[in-house]
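INFO batch 0412 | record 1 of 1 | parsing
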Amino acid sequence: MTTEQLAERAGVSRGLVQRAERGELGCAVGAVFEMAAIVGVPLFTADKEQLLAAKSAAEKTLQLLPSSARASNAGPVSDDF
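INFO prediction complete | emitting tokens
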């Protein structure tokens, strides 16, 4: 499915689809849910085992990420005005 096809089926702009794909903030949650449903991405489940497995996988992934994106090279802050 193309971006244009998804936008048309969801009743949103192509730009909104692209922003949602990039995970940008500011996308209407209802529109994102609608797009997920159209493409078959499950967002919720009542199966406790599936939820725990997904949580565990996410936690393992987060452990691989650095604590910050870049090292702070700033010295002490001088806030004496």
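INFO post-check: The chain is about 55% helix and 0% strand.
INFO record closed
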